[in-house]
Write a structure and sequence with these properties.
The chain is of the alpha/beta class. The protein contains eleven helices and 17 strands.
Length: 331
């Protein structure tokens, strides 16, 4: 089968190789048992793969290896007792090995893919939407009617957070860097949009309606906007840290948290669900219900051939991506 390997740690321009390798099978070990073998139609492109090309990600498999954690495809083989049968359309989280024509995912990280979503959208569901639900509902404790600010709102996690927040009954304020990204955020369901290159903090506070600030901020970006995010929160507000796509990890003097009794909360979905596999059923059911209701409609911002994997990573690195970037192995 065709697969994309990371052959060295020289970065996205030169680290990738499109090669022929043996197909995996369900005897590949996944706790608590064999995995689901999937014919991959589309595989998601995310920051972990970009970091892996430089050896900067916490998971460092021996070289060469096939990266890729998110896929949309069709079940080829499922272990005894699985919820799935050959021919089922699924979205799945593979941990690694997803950038290939055939991949294996744990049963508990494999979910039905409704017909209303295509395979590229299926490759966008788990990492982005499960993270968004975990961050908003589990860590941010979002309630109906609350104001939720979303940074990086045109990206994969950002568009997912906008839609999930709407599904939870919240009012959303998107923060973006360009007019084009503003249009993406609006199309994804943002109630209000502000530009990060303008006095966005004051605009956000004004848009909350009572000038007291936002209830929740979702931040997958980090960097120099972190302090102003704290300043946008009303008393009892929560800033949920999802990631650091800016490349800069901010710091905060904790006395700032005392002023308005505000919280800074981490949302590490991957680390949590691997330690608590049962949590996936609840998150998957909630996300699946939002898909069925039409609340969730993943935004696919670019589809690349396997030969173009390096270009896909560079789009991500340059922060030019909108929605989810995918590698298309089959139609």
């Amino acid at each position: 089968m065709r697969a994309i390997q990371i052959a060295d740690l020289s970065g996205p321009d030169s680290a990738l190789r499109l090669v022929e390798v043996a197909e995996p099978d369900s005897t590949e070990a996944f706790a608590p048992g064999p995995g689901v073998v999937i014919d991959v139609h589309a595989a998601g492109v995310s920051f972990p793969e970009l970091l892996q090309t430089r050896g900067q990600y916490q998971l460092k498999p021996p070289l060469p290896f096939v990266p890729g954690s998110e896929v949309g495809g069709v079940v080829r083989q499922a272990p005894p007792g699985s919820r799935f049968q050959p021919g089922d359309r699924v979205s799945a989280f593979c941990l690694n090995g997803g950038w290939a024509e055939v991949a294996v995912a744990p049963d508990y990280l494999t979910f039905p893919l409704p017909d209303r979503l295509d395979f590229a959208q299926g490759a966008a569901v788990i990492l982005n939407y499960h993270t968004a639900y975990f961050a908003l509902k589990g860590r941010g404790r979002v309630q109906p009617g609350e104001n939720v600010v979303v940074h990086g709102a045109a990206g994969g996690v950002g568009t997912a957070a906008l839609q999930v927040a709407k599904g939870l009954g919240a009012r959303t304020i998107a923060v973006v860097s360009t007019d084009a990204k503003a249009e993406v955020a609006r199309a994804a369901g943002a109630d209000e949009v502000v530009r990060s290159d303008r006095p966005w903090k004051d605009e956000v506070i004004a848009l909350t309606g009572d000038n007291k600030g936002a209830d929740v901020v979702i931040d997958p970006v980090g960097g120099d906007r972190f302090l102003d995010s704290l300043r946008t929160l009303r008393e009892g507000g929560r800033l949920v840290v999802v990631g650091f796509t800016s490349g800069f990890i901010p710091e905060v003097k904790v006395n700032r948290l005392l002023l308005n009794n505000i919280e800074v909360v981490g949302a590490g979905w991957g680390a949590y669900v691997l330690r608590h596999p049962q949590a996936n059923a609840e998150i998957g059911a909630a996300v699946g219900a939002m898909i069925d209701q039409g609340v969730i409609n993943p935004v696919v911002g670019g589809r690349f051939a396997p030969e173009e994997a390096a270009e896909a990573l560079k789009v991500l690195e340059q922060r030019a991506a909108t929605g989810k970037i995918v590698i298309q192995f089959r139609p």
